[in-house]
Design goal:
- This protein is an alpha+beta fold.
- It contains four helices and eight strands, in the order H-E-E-H-E-E-E-E-H-E-E-H.
- The chain is globular and about 45 Å long.
């Protein structure tokens, strides 16, 4: 009896969920490779360009959304599999005398994205751990949240 109940339970867990008579979509875990990250961004609707490979640089790709250029670079790569993907957007304020570090500190105390000032520009970054794999839905949600923060951060930047 216990063995039959256990087998029936395992079988029901292995069977796809049914909603409205259709099988639920299966979510596949993708490896943390540059090609898989690029494919996930493309599946999310972005036109992504892989930047030319450089021996001393991590794999990097670029896309544009809402007038913002977003660079996505991968790090911790070994044997073609990476451990992190970082999205980054910048705003050039090189004509300004000083960058507002209070704005950066205030942002960082309230948001999960990381703002910083470097060489006359403001930056906003977000990192997603991809070691062990990821799903396309995870990348889509990560980038959507990141782009919301990009727009909110831009609203906080000093007027020109």
């Amino acid at each position: 009896m216990t063995r039959t109940l256990l087998a029936a339970t395992l079988l029901s867990l292995a069977a796809p969920a049914v909603a409205g008579g259709a099988a639920a979509p299966v979510t596949q875990v993708q490896p943390g490779t540059p090609a898989a990250v690029m494919a996930a961004l493309k599946a999310a609707g972005y036109k992504v360009t892989m930047d030319p490979a450089q021996a001393d640089r991590d794999p990097t790709m670029t896309f544009t959304s809402g007038g913002h250029e977003v660079q996505v670079w991968l790090s911790g790569c070994k044997s073609g599999v990476c451990s992190r993907a970082t999205a980054s957007t910048s705003w050039d304020y090189s004509d300004a005398e000083d960058l507002d570090l209070d704005l950066v500190n205030e942002w960082n105390s309230n948001y999960y994205t990381q703002a910083y000032a470097y060489e006359g520009s403001y930056y906003l970054d977000s990192t997603l751990a991809i070691r062990g794999g990821f799903t396309q839905a995870t990348v889509k949600a990560w980038i959507a949240e990141y782009l919301e923060d990009v727009n909110a951060f831009e609203e906080e930047l000093p007027g020109e």
